[in-house]
Amino acid sequence: MRLRTRLLPVVAGLALVAAACADDDVLTGDPEDGVAEVDEDAADDDVLEDEVSEDDAAEDDAAEDDAAEDDAAAAPGDAVAGVVTVGIEVADSDLGAHVVTAEGMTTYAAVDQRDGDAVCVGDCAQVWQPVLVDGEPEVAADIDAEVTTIEHPDGGTQIVIAGAPLHTFVVDAEPGDVRGHASAERWFVVSPTGEVIGGPDDGGA
Asked: Residue 188 forms beta bridges with which residues?
């Protein structure tokens, strides 16, 4: 009976050592010595690999963000809901001669936009789309007004005539449409001299 009592702790100890040594990557030592030691180098390597993986993922995310920003800067029409043209011209309609894009789409100006600043942004710019240009705009000879550009807050370079940033109207489907004229008593087609037609500057006709 005494012999069996003395053997129980020894057997239990060997069982614990055997279980610990099952993890060869982390534990070292000779089970016959009854010692199981933690392999600190192996544990450190696992932690280092996890940290490197996280760093690589962060660098990949940063690279993707940089690429997206570069794409937006390279494509002026992608950063904001606008229409990209090479310049502006003059067309005739029942409203008289007015400014259109090089593709013939009617342009509009807001009567409260005369300081050269873009105030139609966000949801507004989804409906009244900024007329954007890549570089300097081409201006038809029969336009008798100062034509400049500004950087639109939502992205892209917007054409400005006589201090009024130009827009198209999302409902206009084809060249010649003037469905946005006098909308909300704010948006009007623009004459070759840069004045709105039919608005306060034109006697309110």
From this structure: 109
